[in-house]
Amino acid sequence: MLLTILVNREYGTAFIDGRVIITGRLVIRVTNLDTTKSVVLNASGPGHIDRDGTFTAEGRYLAFGPTIDGLNLYTGHRDYFTAVGSGHVVSVCDMLAG
User: Fold this and answer.
1) pTM of the model
2) ∠ Cα 24 28 32 (to 5°)
3) Residue 47 near residue 19, CB atoms below 8 Å
4) How far apart are the first and last CA of the chain?
5) Tens of pLDDT, residues 7-45
């Protein structure tokens, strides 16, 4: 997979109590290098970092990592550290499969 950032107008707003809100526009093209099939995704979030470091995403966002199977597009609410959330999940790998 190749991820190409097409639009990155995201920014963070930090608050005196330690919270951060990440908002703005993020558009990414994901390409399957084996098939050259690609899809353009809006992954603008927003995201929230709490005082304890917990990162929570809402809206539309991409996620991958040790607790996630492949690369997924989420719509909804998800805690990145516990992998707990609600909403809709679409496998980007399945979208781009052969």
Assistant:
1) 0.82
2) 165
3) no
4) 13
5) 999 999 999 999 999 999 999 999 999 999 999 999 998
Closest CA to 48 of 75, 14, 71: 14
**Amino acid identity, position 7:** V
Among 85, 36, 81, 82, which residue's Cα sits nearest to residue 60?
A: 85
Spatial separation of the C-alpha atoms in residues 79 and 15, rounded to whole Å: 20
Radius of gyration of the chain (CA): 14
Question: 16-28 b/e with 16+ CB inside 10 Å = b?
Answer: eeeeeebbeebeb
Q: State which amino acid sits at residue 42.
A: N
- At 46-60, the pLDDT tens digits run 999 999 888 888 889
Sign of CA dihedral 93, 44, 85, 80: positive
pLDDT at 97: 87
Quote the tokens at residue 93. Answer: 């790998």
